[in-house]
Amino acid sequence: MTTSSSPTPPDGRDGPGDAGVGGEPDGARLGPVSPAALTAFVVVGLVGGWLLRRLGRSLGFAVPPVSWTQVLLLVLVAAILAGTAWFTRRTVERARADLLAHQAVNRLVLARACALVGALLVGGYVGHAVSWLGSASYVADERLTRSLVAAAAAGAVLAASLLLERACRVPAEPPAP
């Protein structure tokens, strides 16, 4: 018989360190990034990208251009994330012991952060492109095209991040005989 100095919570467990469902500590499982969070980040980016040009013009600032360097950097990040996802999936399928727990968690956190930032950038670049629609400026077509290409590259970052997040999933072990 064990005694506890703290009262038992209403859920019947003894405390925050007790094992939850499946023998894992409470809070030990991270779910995938929710579609609602990704959608919220896209919407915030969309509004921010659209407002950037409007506010810049009203305050007398120059509108920041989208450079090809930004696009290439996003493509590079997407390629690195996709490669990491591929290597992670191979490692998990081949021998789970080769991927240490802290490495899997680090990759999962990286994937989640990059997915949210990728969603924000997709929205931001699309919003920036939308702000150039109907503009009579001589640079409008160039800025619209570059913004849409950058949005596609940011979409590649988002997709590669979601692939990495999925690659970090470890299949359930079969029950012991």
Automatic annotation (TrEMBL):
Transmembrane intervals: 33-51, 71-88, 109-127, 147-164
Highest taxon listed in the record's lineage: Bacteria
Disordered as annotated region, ranges: 1-26
N-terminal signal peptide: none
Keywords: Membrane, Transmembrane, Transmembrane helix
Matching InterPro entries: DUF3180
Pfam family, one: DUF3180
Name of the molecule in the record: DUF3180 domain-containing protein
Organism whose genome encodes this protein: Nocardioides zeae
